[in-house]
What does this fold into?
Amino acid sequence: MALASRGSPVSDLAVGNNVSSAAARVPVGGPWAGPGDAFTRLRGLRIAHLIETNGPGGAERTVVHLACELQAAGCHNLVIVPAGGEGWLPNQLAGTGVAVESFRLERPLSPAFARRLTSLLRHHRIALAHSHEFTMALYGAWAAWRAGVPLVTTMHGGRYYARHLRRRLALRAAFALTGRVVAVSNDLAAHLSRDLWIAASRITTVGNGARPAPAPVSHAREDLGLGPQDRLVVTVGNLYPVKGHRHAVEALALLQRPGQRVHLAIAGRGDLAETLRAQAADLGVADRLHLLGLRGDIANVLAGADVFILPSLSEGLPVALLEAMFAGCAIVASDVGDVGTALEGGRAGILVPAGDAPALARAVGGLLDSPARAREFGVQARRRAMQEYDVTRMATRYAAIYRDLLA
It folds into this structure.
């Protein structure tokens, strides 16, 4: 079983495959004890973060932020991610000191993987495990129980787990072995309680966080060939139906403005790219839709936007929204999950019903017609983000949960 620290090759934990690599361990630190703030009292603790995907989504960004904050505070962190794919998450951890293990889960139900995960936790003498999302909630609960370590599980995003009764029953059973269940929004916490028939008091809400990025001199508009009279609307999110991009394209077609050409840029990758291009062609706006794919320069893209939109049909507390708030964007967002809470009920951005393209178009058009109002929304959004959604605040809340479980 190999564990590569950052800067060296990622190791590969394979179930059903013969894969070998040189052994390494999470660095040994001091015991968890002593007074002080949450970070100080966790110094030297070895924490494993388990996640079922390694792409550039909100859950993955949260894992990166949390592991890096804890690493900087003196904890030793191991992130366990799937092998293959884009490898976005391991790449983000390069040079941070956070260690990475990768795995291959050959089938949905794998006792062999559960045993190997248990062995991994024991081998690295992990003191606390933190699972993210459904698959790792299940396997993490079994492995942590067998390894004798406490487990925190965080659920992100929508209610995909509730589609089938067997999924709900499995998740309920996993939560019975979990020391603390966390939801990223109050809305999701309420759904988990109702869907899984568990007491609301067993679920803690910890909002996601984002890291303020320096505002660059953006070249996004230049890259898209936009002129002084063009207006740029931006959204960030992978191309999945739940992100509501088809409604954004429909809204783009409604934004016909004298003397202005409104463009929509979507940063994200996914299977709906061709579907969205076809929709834009049918609506006569193909030349105003820009699918940017996976971008590593989101700060640059946001800095070039006149308006940021979040057209999602379902969310918890999306990291993309928080990044736009930190960037000082004027925001129009679907009123789903805890988006309304983040935007202070409409004081830090405009809220519209999910799936309502005409309402989305009207709100965006109103901001484009009033640059001063748009700037004020941007100021309020950044102020709100700095007060409530800095990544250090999120990490501190998780550190307090870890401390309580280890007390």
Summary: The two ends are 30 Å apart (CA to CA). The first strand starts at residue 11 and ends at 14.
